Amino acid sequence: MSTASVSPVLALVRDDLRAFAGYSSARSSALQGDIWLNANEAAWANPADPHSSARRYPDPQPPPLRQALAALYGCRPEQLLIGRGSDEAIDLLVRALCVPGRDAVLATPPVFGMYAVCARLQNAPLLEVPLHDGEEGLVPDIEAIIAIALAQAAKLVFLCSPSNPGGAAIPLAQVEQVATALRGHALVVVDEAYGEFADQPSAATLLGRYDNLAVLRTLSKAHALAAARIGCVIADAQLIEVLRRCQAPYPVPAPCSQLALQALAPAVLAQTAARVAVVKSERSRLHNALQAIVGVRRVYPSQGNFLLVRFDDAEAAFQALLDAGIVVRDQRAAPQLADALRITIGTPDQNDRVLGALQAIKVSA
Max CA-CA distance within the chain? Predict the structure, then answer.
């Protein structure tokens, strides 16, 4: 199929996958009946499964959950694909759009490592445009991203917003700038895993104007369902259909789907919103308190549920926290972060323990 005969967003998909049918599972058809003998499932429930909920294969994209997530993120259900966290969405996008050895993936280190991992597994060239370390924190070089993406044939551009581990959110005007410049050349993927903690609207609000834009969301962070592995990609409905055909047959386990649906009930969402407010308040408190500790070199402003902190002696800080039973993320192997740790915002009591452990470090004269 020539690119002249397809929509602009489908033209970004690998030629050999645009019409790919994928695997037609037993649950992908709309057949009805009361005796199901079409999927070679067990005739009896497992004795450890008293509710008989695990005997049948799950719906590949459970409609109630898809509708609830679409309502949560302000899109249509057909614009959303549910997967195993954001990780699966990243992998699907790289595999569906990048011809191995030819189409490049662009990322902005220091940043979430799965973009580079998925590029490597697909043998897609990895282009890196380092974040700029300035007064506003670790922020992307938008002009360089556009220039390098165009010059070196990037097919996917990942923008992490809020950025992990830097914490800065990318203004929507800059997202639009990249999407406009790369229209017809690349898909711009905005990873909003920490979007609930940010003070700006989601990039999903731009989807009506940019078909070369995709947004990643997850229930792992703010919604406290990391073990359920429920995430999604939101994009043009035609691209979502292609990604579904490239996805494994049964990506959403039924117990995880049911738990996620319960978590999206109005009363639960209200409690989640209240807890997000506490995290944001604690983030501000911890930021200010850390800056006052001797040996702390810099605390970066953050729109996520974490803080990136530079230390005069990061090893001493890391060990002091470990000795106090506190595990934080060691960032010292990441580009530009040889003296940095990332600290997740915990409960008020947990945050007090962090401060106490760091304040107790003996600073040599």
Answer: 78
Q: What is the CA radius of gyration of the chain?
A: 22
At residue 106, φ and ψ (nearest 5 deg) are -110, 130
Catalogue the E-assigned strands of the chain. Answer: 80-84, 104-107, 126-128, 132-134, 137-139, 154-160, 187-191, 213-218, 230-234, 296-299, 306-311, 329-330, 340-344
Domain boundaries, the chain: 3-264, 268-359
d(Cα 307, Cα 341) in Å, to the nearest integer?
8
DSSP helix/strand/coil, 199: coil
Per-residue model confidence as pLDDT tens digits over 347-357: 999 999 999 99
Instruction: Report phi then psi at 118, rounded to 5.
Output: -65, -35
CATH domain 268-359 topology: Aspartate Aminotransferase, domain 1 (3.90.1150)
Global pTM reads 0.94
Q: Which residues pair with 306 in a beta bridge?
A: 344
Residue in 216, 218, 204 with CA at minimum distance from that of residue 263: 218
CATH of domain 3-264: 3.40.640.10
How far, in Å, CA of 291 to CA of 289, rounded? 5
- Give the orientation angle of helix 142-151 with respect to helix 172-181, to 10 degrees: 20
Q: What share of the chain is helix, strand, coil (3-state, %, to 5)?
A: 40, 15, 45
Q: Rounded to an integer, what distance in angstroms lies between the CA atom of residue 112 and that of residue 91?
A: 13
Please classify residue 93 by burial: count the beta carbons closer than 10 Å to its beta carbon, then call 0-12 exposed, 13-18 middle and 19+ buried: buried
Ramachandran angles phi, psi of 176, nearest 5°: -60, -40
Torsions phi, psi for 300 (to 5 deg):
-80, 140
CA distance 159 to 170: 8
Q: How confident is the model at residue 3 (pLDDT cuts 50, 70, 90)?
A: low
